[in-house]
Design goal:
With about 150 residues, the protein is of the alpha+beta class. It has two domains: about 1-45; about 55-135, no CATH class. It contains six helices and three strands; from the N terminus they run H-E-E-H-H-H-H-E-H. The N and C termini lie far apart (about 55 Å).
């Protein structure tokens, strides 16, 4: 295979990657919209969990913590990183605060203290959201039979 042919194939792979990135973005947006729609319907129908197609889907209430916008913080005269440091959370600060690290740290803080300190409430947006979790259902009786057969 010559260099030009390799370059063409490489270019095709890069184009395919870009297409997959866009398709993934669209798919993630559709999943997010459908999650919201299903959560609302599960709440309306008072159905906290349901089994479909070998999976159990269940409603989970999660409180989310995220940094407020720079504009909102500036209007309030607050510096996000300064407030984190003042609240003893400087150890999670890097050049940026990872949203998952912030989420788990604030969740643990609220669980330990029972509330979100007022200073943190000034720099964080707090909202409740619902997620739909999926877990493969297992048939315990069938699994026992399979294990018994393997033992013979």
């Amino acid at each position: 295979m010559g260099l030009l042919e390799m370059i063409r194939e490489f270019n095709e792979l890069l184009d395919e990657k870009d297409g997959l990135k866009e398709a993934t973005k669209r798919n993630n947006e559709a999943i997010s919209a459908k999650t919201k729609e299903i959560a609302e319907q599960m709440i309306d129908d008072d159905v906290p969990s349901i089994s479909v197609g070998g999976y159990k889907f269940f409603l989970q209430n999660k409180t989310m913590y995220s940094k407020k916008s720079e504009e909102a913080l500036m209007e309030a005269g607050l510096d996000f990183l300064v407030v984190l440091r003042e609240q003893g959370l400087g150890d999670i600060i890097q050049e940026t605060v990872n949203s998952r690290t912030l989420q788990s740290t604030i969740k643990n803080l609220v669980e330990e203290t029972g509330s979100l300190p007022e200073e943190l409430a000034e720099v964080l947006s707090v909202y409740d959201t619902y997620e739909i979790s999926r877990r493969k259902e297992t048939n315990k009786t069938a699994n026992k039979v399979k294990r018994a057969k393997k033992g013979n």
